[in-house]
């Protein structure tokens, strides 16, 4: 790993301390008052864009419209979505190791090129299909759903033109997870919801639908950003405002979610925690690593009873 990891290791305890002080002094309430009374926004804390007043599902039109603008560069491996294209380095082993640990695939098969053969996976919020294709490459049958029609069109276009060999192992649908769950409850070995939770206000709705799609004993994998000051600094201040490698207003602290919260919601719907693994994105070398710290990014694995 590069020196950048050293910076991360140094910053984590500093931010933790600041966070403790802020919590003790209830500075988050001060920030809310400043925002609501005087319109003084602290960058990336709260999402001031329009919200659904009575949400019927987990989808925010504002989020979908914002993300849809990214279709033009989604598959450019050196463009703004570059970090998504090396993310397989941790999110694929998260799924493969997890399914081996829970007995869905044999441990001896994890290193085989078709390690996921015969495994039926739902990718909830599949976007342009980057992860769906990574999983299908290993032999899984992947159903990708996403409420963003432009994203699904892009995923289909990429499949048709660049990845024809995977056509018999992937299908995409422009539909919400909640709608999909009405027809396909209890049918998947695994559901993967990667980098979606941070774009959803109604987290319980999407998580409930993800769990409903699983067979008993099936695995739900979530990757997202933790609700910490470290994640706020790296994803919003550094990536969006200083380095400008992610479009502004893609992330908000209030939408980040801790692994404890995801675990509590999914346990309400009959899941038990299997494992949480920390990830680190080493920007200068565009590589992802598993680390013990889960303050910025994490991958969570729960199992349906
Ligand atoms: C950052 S992209 C991640 C795409 C894909 N999972 C990946 O990692 O390559 C987030 C995706 O979540 C989708 N999304 C946003 N809200 C959603 C919701 N409530 N249910 C399902 N998908 C949603 C967006 O349309 C977008 O395609």
Fold and architecture overview:
- The structure is a single chain.
- With 305 residues, the protein is of the alpha/beta class.
- The protein has a single domain (60-304), classed as 3-Layer(aba) Sandwich (Rossmann fold), CATH 3.40.50.
- The chain has eleven helices and eight strands.
- The protein has helices spanning 3-24, 27-38, 61-68, 82-85, 88-101, 130-137, 149-161, 177-184, 203-213, 229-242, 259-268, and strands at 120-124, 141-145, 170-173, 188-194, 214-225, 271-282, 287-291, 297-304.
- An eight-stranded mixed sheet has the order 3-2-1-4-5-8-6-7, with helices on both faces.
- α8 (177-184) runs parallel beside α9.
- The longest helix is centred in the N-terminal third of the chain and has 22 residues, at 3-24.
- It is globular, with a radius of gyration of 19 Å.
- The structure holds S-adenosylmethionine (SAM).
Nutshell version of this structure?
With 305 residues, this protein is α/β, with parallel strands linked by helices. It is built from eleven helices and eight strands.
């Amino acid at each position: 790993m590069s020196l950048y990891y050293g910076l991360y290791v140094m910053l984590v305890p500093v931010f933790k301390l600041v966070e403790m002080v802020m919590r003790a002094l209830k500075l988050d309430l001060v920030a809310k008052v400043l925002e609501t009374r005087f319109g003084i926004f602290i960058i990336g804390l709260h999402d001031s864009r329009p919200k659904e007043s009575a949400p019927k599902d987990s989808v925010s039109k504002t989020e979908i419209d914002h993300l849809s603008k990214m279709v033009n560069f989604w598959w450019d491996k050196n463009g703004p979505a570059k970090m998504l294209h090396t993310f397989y380095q941790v999110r694929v082993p998260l799924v493969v190791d997890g399914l081996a640990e829970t007995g869905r695939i044999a441990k001896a098969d994890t290193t085989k090129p078709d390690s996921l053969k015969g495994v039926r996976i739902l990718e909830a919020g599949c976007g342009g299909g980057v992860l769906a294709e990574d999983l299908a490459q290993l032999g899984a049958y992947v159903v990708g759903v996403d409420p963003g029609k432009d994203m699904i069109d892009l995923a289909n276009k990429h499949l048709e033109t660049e990845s024809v060999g995977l056509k018999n192992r992937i299908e995409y649908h422009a539909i919400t997870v909640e709608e999909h769950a009405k027809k396909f409850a209890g049918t998947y070995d695994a559901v993967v919801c990667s980098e979606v939770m941070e774009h959803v206000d109604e987290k319980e709705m999407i998580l409930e639908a993800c769990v409903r799609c699983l067979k008993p004993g099936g695995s739900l994998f979530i990757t997202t950003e933790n609700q910490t000051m470290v994640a706020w600094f790296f994803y919003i201040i550094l990536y969006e405002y200083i380095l400008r490698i992610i479009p502004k207003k893609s992330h908000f602290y209030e939408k980040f979610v801790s692994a404890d919260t995801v675990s509590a919601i999914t346990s309400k719907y009959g899941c038990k925690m299997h494992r949480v693994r920390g990830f680190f994105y080493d920007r200068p070398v565009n590589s992802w690593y598993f680390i013990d710290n889960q303050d910025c990014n994490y991958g969570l694995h729960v199992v349906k009873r």
